[in-house]
Structure prediction request, 167 residues.
Amino acid sequence: MLVATLLFLAGCDRGPAPLPPESIQIRINLLCSTCDDFLRCEVSDVVPETNSYRLYRLREKSFWAQIATIWDYLIQLFRQKTADVRPLTVYENEGERRRIVSSEAKARVDAAAGLILLPDSVIDMRNGQWRTLNGDLQGRCRALPRREGYAWVRAMLGRELPVERAP
Prediction:
């Protein structure tokens, strides 16, 4: 009975497939509910010396959302997860001044379309293009290593990262 059910479910539509990993420049793990992902976006027509950019932090999910992720793992055989919604904090860096723009927003990651939908813009995961909601190109984004993202946030808050101790 179990084998018959599994065979039946395997024949069901698994939904849209995510883009192949080799075609994606910005990778977000949809099944990691405790991960923070940092995206640094720079406007195209700004002089690099001004050190002006926007930092998007896709934060870890709430406790109950993390529990719900267990279901996502269980159904991977039948329906692969291609979209997720994550809490979002938006920071801005203008020269030496850093500030929080928004801490109550949501980001929607669509791995099938290769897009990260933000409240104020859209990031193309394939090439890092950062577009307005109207589709106009405004700059480029890149994923920061988590440690670098955490260091940026802690520096803004006036706290340093813990020092790694050698074994």
Remarks:
- Residues 107 and 118 are 5 Å apart (CA to CA).
- The chain has three helices and eight strands.
